[in-house]
């Protein structure tokens, strides 16, 4: 059936069903107008989705990898063909600029389905081992094979900052490996995920292989995690929620993949190309309005260039156009909600009270409507300040000075987080030496760019496990060994 946006249904067992909990309004953060009406699932409906995924797992896991890949390829084509309307919806739900919605949200989602629409080897030979005669039997040459097997039913709980790329990065590799999925989208912008489900349905995904159940109630996510039919939980979101999910998963030994918070350190040395460093750090102000866990929000500047870097960052932030993300030239759109805007503003005020200097920003833009935050730069920060240590998740950058390499590395590693850090230096040998000393899952050397085949994930409270590229196929599989006498 064709589901109208104002009456969005759940996708359970291959059918679009009415939600037991009714609907709630999805609000455009730029205009504060209603985008559509999202469904509120009941706990029973979530468990029904998990049961449907369990029933579909057997046939889907035995489907030839080439057939699974063909479905993912068709889904990629459908998403790409509908890029403009899908991006318009994503923009309305998230407040992303037009370029971000098209290129980094819907465009990346299509690319991720395309990436996993290929068959990769799932088994490999282990060197034979010569065993002497003993209690385990006669002497023999033992052959072995390692085989990747699907985990089973995977609950995918996605983040609000990218309702296309984030779920696609979970669903595509999970399906490619033969798993079935239950997707619980973020409550702020779930409508895009239901469009993704429609594309997958049209691409030929069998009934029950993909299920989408959402809602604002905590019970919806809890049901998707604690269902006995679920074998693994893949979660992107806050560390606090991730810890609660981990506790539930631990009770029944469910597999976990966790991409959690970040407080990326950006070490800028005296010999750095300051233009490159400013442009990279400045993405914190512009990209998703700072609502991204990989942002270089915690700048550590060597004293020789500290004043110049602060001055240039302030000038950069001051030039950025804040406003309607649909207008040409807008660089900084709104944050996701009024509540989140207030949270960001409270951190800026806290920084003032803690002794940080507000160099630029710190006030609410003069807008009649929309949840806007002015790009804000906090200088003269000490490493013990809460604005330096805690994830703000908004267009706010802190700057702290350091003297030498050892101090810079120590300050960077003095964090509860460890997702992605950054190093700017014209001395490539030093940059790579420093990168290896940083306790982070990834390090950008003179760039904030990413290689999407590289493993992605964090140290410490930034997460558990790795995905992207072939590493995602590893994440959504178990390794089985088969041994035989030669």
Automatic annotation (TrEMBL):
<dbReference type="InterPro" id="IPR016162">
    <property type="entry name" value="Ald_DH_N"/>
</dbReference>
<keyword id="KW-0560">Oxidoreductase</keyword>
<dbReference type="GO" id="GO:0016620">
    <property type="term" value="F:oxidoreductase activity, acting on the aldehyde or oxo group of donors, NAD or NADP as acceptor"/>
</dbReference>
<dbReference type="InterPro" id="IPR016161">
    <property type="entry name" value="Ald_DH/histidinol_DH"/>
</dbReference>
<dbReference type="Pfam" id="PF00171">
    <property type="entry name" value="Aldedh"/>
</dbReference>
<protein>
    <submittedName>
        <fullName>Aldehyde dehydrogenase</fullName>
    </submittedName>
</protein>
<comment type="similarity">
    <text>Belongs to the aldehyde dehydrogenase family.</text>
</comment>
<feature type="domain" description="Aldehyde dehydrogenase">
    <location>
        <begin position="16"/>
        <end position="482"/>
    </location>
</feature>
<dbReference type="InterPro" id="IPR015590">
    <property type="entry name" value="Aldehyde_DH_dom"/>
</dbReference>
<dbReference type="InterPro" id="IPR016163">
    <property type="entry name" value="Ald_DH_C"/>
</dbReference>
């Amino acid at each position: 059936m064709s589901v109208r946006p104002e009456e969005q249904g759940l996708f359970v067992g291959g059918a679009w069903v009415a939600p037991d909990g009714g609907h709630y309004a999805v609000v455009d953060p730029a205009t504060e107008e209603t985008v559509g009406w999202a469904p509120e699932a009941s706990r029973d409906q979530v468990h029904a989705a998990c049961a449907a995924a369990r029933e579909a797992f057997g046939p889907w896991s035995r489907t030839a990898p080439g057939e699974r890949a063909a479905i993912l390829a068709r889904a990629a084509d459908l998403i790409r063909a509908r890029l403009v309307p899908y991006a318009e919806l994503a923009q309305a739900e998230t407040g992303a600029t037009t370029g971000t919605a098209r290129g980094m949200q819907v465009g990346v989602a299509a690319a991720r389905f395309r990436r996993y629409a290929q068959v990769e080897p799932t088994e490999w030979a282990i060197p034979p081992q010569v065993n002497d005669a003993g209690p385990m039997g006669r002497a023999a040459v033992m052959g072995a094979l390692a085989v990747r097997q699907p985990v089973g039913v995977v609950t995918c709980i996605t983040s609000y900052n990218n309702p296309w790329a984030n779920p696609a990065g979970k669903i595509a590799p999970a399906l490619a490996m033969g798993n079935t999925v239950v997707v619980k989208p973020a409550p702020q912008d779930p409508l895009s995920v239901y469009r993704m489900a429609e594309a997958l349905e049209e691409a030929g995904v069998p009934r029950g292989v993909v299920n989408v159940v959402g809602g604002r109630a905590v019970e919806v996510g809890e049901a998707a995690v604690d269902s006995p039919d679920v074998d693994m939980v893949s979660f992107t979101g806050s560390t606090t929620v991730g810890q609660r999910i981990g506790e539930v998963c631990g009770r029944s030994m469910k597999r976990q993949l966790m991409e959690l918070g970040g407080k990326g350190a950006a070490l800028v040395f005296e010999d750095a190309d300051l233009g490159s460093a400013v442009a990279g750090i400045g993405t914190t102000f512009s990209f998703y309005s700072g609502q991204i866990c990989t942002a270089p929000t915690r700048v550590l500047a060597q004293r020789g260039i500290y004043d110049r870097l602060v001055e240039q960052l302030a000038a950069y932030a001051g030039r950025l156009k804040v406003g309607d993300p649909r207008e040409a030239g807008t660089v900084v759109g709104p944050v996701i909600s009024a509540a989140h805007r207030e949270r960001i503003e409270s951190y800026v005020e806290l920084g003032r009270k803690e002794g940080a200097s507000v160099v630029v920003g710190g006030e609410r833009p003069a807008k009649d409507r929309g949840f806007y935050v002015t790009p804000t730069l906090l200088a003269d920060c000490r490493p013990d300040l809460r604005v330096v240590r805690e994830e703000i998740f908004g267009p706010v950058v802190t700057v702290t000075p350091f003297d030498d390499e050892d101090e810079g590395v120590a300050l960077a590693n003095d964090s509860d987080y460890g997702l992605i850090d950054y190093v700017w230096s014209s001395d490539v040998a030093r940059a790579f030496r420093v990168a290896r000393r940083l306790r982070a899952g990834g390090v950008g050397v003179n760039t904030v760019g990413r290689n999407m085949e590289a493993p992605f994930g964090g140290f410490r409270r930034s997460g558990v496990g790795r995905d992207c590229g072939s590493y995602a196929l590893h994440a959504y599989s178990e390794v089985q060994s088969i041994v035989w006498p030669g």
